[in-house]
Design brief:
heterodimer, A: seven-stranded mixed sheet, 11 strands, B: six-stranded mixed sheet, four-stranded antiparallel sheet
């Protein structure tokens, strides 16, 4: 049990669909992250929220839209995706984004396939 | 810009033999260094970290890593590999940047470790 729960575990969607990924953490952390993991590439940081405020947006296309209603929940809203967006999307949390020492805690990811 | 290199996409070792997974980094100033492991169909799990002090850091599941400042390396090691150690291993670096605003954690591409029975 990781303390960070992601749903759904698998998602297949067409390019015209709209879907959302959900992440919930039970660790009392204040920072939450979305990462994209593609084969043989470094993890790509997409978004960071610290105390519900977005602190990082690494030039992510607007077809990905994050939402952080509170420190325990994080969403990634998806619309008009492209096949190259197929990947494993990982959510993570940490005590505070500015705390350089504390490790990240990851969920098990959502495997997204765009057809 | 900071970066992490894991020069081997794949490492194969026999069970019971020692294993090493290599990592070198580039960062402005001194680093905080981390190793994570990813088992199939799972997220990343924290293994160990180097913050300061002793260059040899011990972590979970019998793993250790040695920080070498002159070679900018942080290789992961284990004296005796188990089949259950087979997984994807990621090295990551953060800059010690007091007063700055660079908090980013940069990951390597990962190294697939296969331990053969």
């Amino acid at each position: 049990e990781t303390g960070v729960t992601q749903t759904p575990r698998h998602l297949v969607m067409g390019m015209t669909n709209k879907k959302s990924l959900k992440c919930e953490q039970h660790l009392g952390h204040n920072a939450m992250y979305w990462y994209k993991q593609s084969a043989k590439k470094p993890l790509e940081l997409m978004f960071v929220y610290n105390f519900k405020e977005q602190t990082e947006n690494n030039s992510v296309p607007s077809r990905f839209s994050p939402e952080c209603p509170n420190s325990s929940h994080l969403f990634l809203h998806l619309h008009t995706l492209q096949p190259e967006d197929s990947a494993l999307y990982l959510c993570a949390s940490s005590q505070d984004y500015r705390d350089r020492i504390s490790p990240l805690h990851f969920g098990n990811g959502t495997r997204l396939t765009v057809t | 810009a900071q970066s992490v290199a894991q020069p081997e996409d794949q490492v194969n070792v026999a069970e019971g033999n020692p294993l090493t997974v290599k990592c070198t980094y580039s960062v402005s100033g001194n680093p905080y260094l981390f190793w994570y492991v990813q088992y199939p169909n799972r997220g990343l799990q924290f293994l160990l970290k180097y913050i300061t002090g002793d260059n040899l850091v011990k972590g979970s599941y019998g793993f250790e890593a040695e920080f070498n400042k002159s070679q900018t390396s942080f290789h992961l090691k284990k004296p005796s590999a188990l089949v259950s150690d087979s997984a994807l291993y990621f090295c990551a670096v953060r800059a010690i940047n007091s007063g700055g605003s660079n908090y980013k954690l940069t990951f390597g591409k990962g190294t697939l470790l296969t331990v053969n029975p």
